[in-house]
Amino acid sequence: MISRLVNTGILRVEKNEYSQKKAFLADKEAILIDKKTAATIGIILKPNTPLISQWVTQATLLLAASIESHDCALEYRNENWMLWHYYDINQDDDELEHKSIKHLALGRFLENGLTD
């Protein structure tokens, strides 16, 4: 599944000298979970606000309220906010690319677009 996303050109996976993988969805650092029937990609978010508790409330309400974000989840991991998105094997390559673009756009909005 990950190889299909890599083939679209929007996902890139690099190995360092210790054979550890580092992934990027476009310009965003990512964590990958690859299964036979699906993949889940988490991008690291850097919210542009000092009011994290308000940001979390707004972000989670936005994810819950929008049908477009029902394949998404927010997680706090290793001092980073992650926006996870589920990619199904039954989607064609155009749909995968479209979902990747929406994933990135939602991430950018969550980082910069939420206001008080």
Structural commentary:
The protein is of the alpha+beta class and 116 residues long. The chain has one domain: Yope Regulator, Chain: A, CATH 3.30.1460. It is 35% helix and 34% strand. It has a six-stranded antiparallel sheet with strand order 1-2-3-4-6-5.
Distance between the termini: 38 Å
**What proportion of the residues is helical, as a percent range?**
25-40%
| H and E string | HEEEEHEEH
Q: Specify the CATH architecture.
A: 2-Layer Sandwich
Radius of gyration: 14 Å
The profile of the biggest β sheet is: 6 strands, antiparallel
Write the layout of secondary structure elements.
Elements: H1 2-8, E1 11-15, E2 21-25, E3 28-34, E4 38-45, H2 52-65, E5 72-77, E6 80-88, H3 93-112
